[in-house]
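Entry for the shared binder. Reason: the reviewer on the internal report wants the predicted structure included alongside the sequence.
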Amino acid sequence: MNDRSIRVQPGAANYYCHSGAIKKIEEFFSKEELESAVYIHGKKSGEAVEPYLPKSIKDAKHNYLVSGHCSHEIVDLISSESKDAPVIIGAGGGTVLDIAKAVAAELNRPFVSIATIAATCAAWTPLSVWYTEEGAAINYEIFRQGAFLVVVEPQIILEAPERYLQAGVADTIAKYYEADVLTQGVEDLPLTASLGLSVSKKIGDVLLNEGASAFEAMKEKNINHSFLNVVDAIVAGGGLVGGLGERYTRVAAAHAMHNGLSQLESSKHVLHGLKVAYGILVQTALLGDKIELKKLYDKFLILELPTKLSDIGVDASNRDDLNKVIDAAIAPKETMSLLPFAVDNALLYEAIETVENLSK
């Protein structure tokens, strides 16, 4: 029998995604509580949220405009200055929300998450990624509590740059392909992990089939049903998958490829999810599933997701750079090792070649 000792942490206690959702915050907290809150935001996210934000939050006693990375230094500073705050509110993307989640965990206060982009499931997921002040990744921390309230104003997501939604679509499509490989051959899979796999398949189908319509909605600045489905799939569905299945439904080879690609300066400007998209193709090639690889390739072309290294700023003919990517992706600590077979430099290089040849 396999080890069934997984931690099931489905996610937010409350979730709203509709026009006027941000106003729901006032139904959970009094005016006095909101005026004494910690409100953490970035420059752009603060500007995006401002028209929808209750005045009591705008006037919050502890108002922090943050930039840079989620570091212990910034979290300790905010926490030390805000010990009397009854609630922590974060508005932004992954970095801002990671800081706000960490402050909420440090002060043991309820956390309210306002998503301003749909590039990841950061608004839902009860974890933060820690960095040094200089921007070097340290580790990630999973907190005891998830968000008390997650609110999404679709109009804000609609007006954000389209590349963020593309990145979110790609990162969330990976949930199924990585969960599928992680659960294969497990004889005594916990039911919750099986549910997580089912959710990942459902949201993957939504993204592959409705993603193009959602992108069209962004171009036309007109919310449609597919756009709302895609946002729900990324923010709520993506977070729910990992929460239900823990290690059985988290990251595998696609994210290991992302981490390898991130070693190159030329790809540093490319969003997380877009590098993961290429990683999905490489993982599928490693598994030898030519039919699924062709299907994904065709869908990625429609969704304008990366299908070759040049799409993410990497020169496929530069073997030195590819070796850096490959060595990092197959490092012992990396999740490439979670595949059901060993992956060495030659095998991964062959898989990359297979993906590159699709465009030829």
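Summary line for the report: The radius of gyration is 20 Å.
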